[in-house]
Amino acid sequence: MSYLDQPRINFAGTFQASPATINNTPNNYNPANYNTDSLKPENIELYWEPKGDSIFDLINCSVTTVEAPGVTTDPLQGSTVTALYTSSPPKLVDLDPMQQNGSEIWGFTVMIGGFGGAYVQGVFSPVAFNGIWGNSQGPNTPRNSASGSAVYLSTLTNLKWNVGNSPVLQALQAKSPNRLSIRMVVSAHNNAPQLYAFTTATFQTMLSKGTPQSVLNKIVSLQNYVMNVDANGNPVAPGRGYIPTEAYVSNLLEQLLGQSMAQQYGPGILAVAKQPYQPWIDYNTTKPLPEQPLFDFNYGKIVGSIGPCLDDEPTYAVPARTLAPPAGSQSYAWWAQAKLDTQSKTPSLTLDLANSLPVRLPGRPLWQEKIGTLSLAYYTGTGSNKTYTTFVPSIDYSNPAFINQQSGMLVVTNFGSTTPQNLANLPIALQSTTTVNGKQVTQTLLEENSQGLSMRANQFIFRMNPGLKTTPEFPLGETNTVDIYVRKFGRVEGTEQWKIALSTMTPAQASSYTLGTLGTSGTNGINSGNISTPEGALVLSSNQLSITAGKASLTITGKDPGNPRGYVDGQVYFTQYTFSPSVADYNPDPNDLLSAQIYQANPITGTPTWVNGIGEILRQYGMLYPIMGRFQLWTYDGVVENREKIQRVLSLDISLPLHMPVSRDLSTIKCNLIQGWFNAGMPYDLLGPAGGPGASWNNLPTVLGWGPMTGLVVRSGDIIDAIQPLYGSNSAPIQGGPGGTPSTITLNSGDAIVSMTGYTGTYFGMQQIAQVTFRTAQGQTYGPFGTMANVWSAQPFQLSAPSGSAIGSFFGTTVTHSGGTTFVASLGGNLRPL
């Protein structure tokens, strides 16, 4: 059972989607394209929402109609449908900059009704949209994803019920108390931002209106910002200096001017830079259209339906009859699901058309002039020998209520002279009749294939971490099970005679596919040389699957792809599936495929430090997701200051809205490395060690947060007995033994140790630090400590901190001789930035 069944709740309203767009192109992942000190973009594409917070939310949504046998009125009708959350709204998450055609919703709890009356609430199982297409098809429709429409198909779990006096909730709970099926269609998303122009002309106007030249000099870099460039790196219209959204511009002004000056001059600068807002234009005249977006920036239209779902049914797929555009046709419609019910007292055919028919402009009513008269028919025969018999001569779709109140759900109970039971094994078709040159022309928009076959993978988006085990609690490991559901005229019977053939796209196929999608088209930095390579990293347990009881299953395994894309982690792969033997008129949705992001298994070689890997990871995310700028991810000191907050959001379950990063494209492997780095005391960089093996020790976790080293106690005699750094009134634990003579070093204010030189050697059979001398940034020398008496095979060592860093604490090993005396065996420095 599913949303195609009754009882059913339909709702409509507005949705908010504000994804961060700086991560929309692989080119923006390259740190060479932004200033490493402040993360100020220097050669990146902003796209339309650079400061997006990745929110997905429901706004002013309400129950429009309810459908259940015998139910004519219900108090639930008109009640709210909301995203239920306390601290953070749900998040919209892309899989990869090379696969943006599958944005998922995470951390989403849906509530139908209110706490003051009847309600049901449930957790939305995270899923990506599917069925994305350009449903807005008028000559002046926006030439971007704003003209698109897509479907989210999932289930609600962990249900909480208060059915009260609502007949439809009572009936739903009786049929499926544990799960509900939910389908949401999103369209008309307004991704046209308010633009602000920073050009020579606007700077002259700002100057004439009182902005000092000294202030303008500080923001002149804004003239170089660009929203989009072409394949050759040249800015496209409106060109350089045009920056989207007041929030992002205000953030830039505060960075460049400081808070006080931005507050003083920012309003005047914004007033001059603000451009007229009429984003929809006539492409012939380039003048604004009389009609403009119905929704504010980052908002769009949503209609949804909720129905029963039994415990043993798929989480995401709805195995049903599927109508598709005839293969090779010029149909302007999109795939639709249907269910024929011949078991109920009143037989019915339910057809979901919410995401199947065109509009002239985003959010407007269905395009009646183009669609004409819609009818339903069944056909016999195949190929060019098909004979269509109409059983519903006219569908009333022109009333806006069909979409806005009925959620595009067509329920047929009058089959004319056709017996509903006869349709159980006959392919059905949706046809359009229009007048062309004075003649009636009928066109088949959608139809089932002659065999009535349909199939759909349950889960189709995968994040895979090679080397990590997949468990029910951790589905992001190196393996996943893929279940593909197959139906013949909506039933399991008769499906076993076919098999499912699978093939993973080659790099050339993958590049062609993703650049042809509505989500990823126009993205720079994607080509057959950097996508889906190396081949073979996504391993299928079989390339041909048997179908049993309407289902086929396989295991996919993600092998380490290495780092073929440089600054973008891992690799993304696509796997197609179809029937074997082939079905001549089977036409799958081109986006019905498996998308797998396989992360790099070993992103850091050696010990993770800020300099060795960690800083590069965190700085990149600070750039790609400005909403995380509050954590100051681009500087070591900023991360140290915000370490508790960062650790907390990194450790949250990936399903929670506050999980960081909001994009979910930070691999578990990298998250574990970052958490391990935090637990190790957040080393900036390592210097050394020099010396021999022994019991390991490290001051850093203890002294983190104590500030700079102010002194040092060294105990020495023949060799180095012990070492103990000092931090004002705090002393780190002494490492070594109590022997030797203590010497106390007091560093000058602002000074720091930048090098250690000396000798290692064998002391009574053990390799140890024999002598050490410390030098500081201000040129002070302390030592040498250790006389080197009784030392054999002495070898010199020199450990010098790179420019801009100093030793903040120490690590190394100790050894204990047979007599019980302990000495320092090896010594290294934990560096910190100066």
Explained architecture:
InterPro entries: Jacalin-like_lectin_dom, Jacalin-like_lectin_dom_sf. Residues 683-833 form the Jacalin-type lectin domain. This is Jacalin-type lectin domain-containing protein. Pfam families: Jacalin. It comes from Hyalangium minutum. The chain has 834 residues and is mainly beta. It folds into 5 domains: 8-19 and 54-191 and 297-447, no CATH class; 195-273; 453-598, Sandwich (Immunoglobulin-like); 614-679, no CATH class; 685-833, Vitelline Membrane Outer Layer Protein I, subunit A. Helices cover 13% and strands 35% of the residues. The chain contains 13 helices and 44 strands. The strands form 10 sheets. It has an 8-stranded antiparallel barrel with strand order 1-2-3-6-7-10-11-14. Strands 24-31-30-26-28 form a 5-stranded mixed β-sheet, with no helix packed on it. α4 packs across α5. The radius of gyration is 33 Å and the shape is elongated. The chain starts with 7 loop residues before the first strand and ends with a strand. The mean pLDDT is 94.
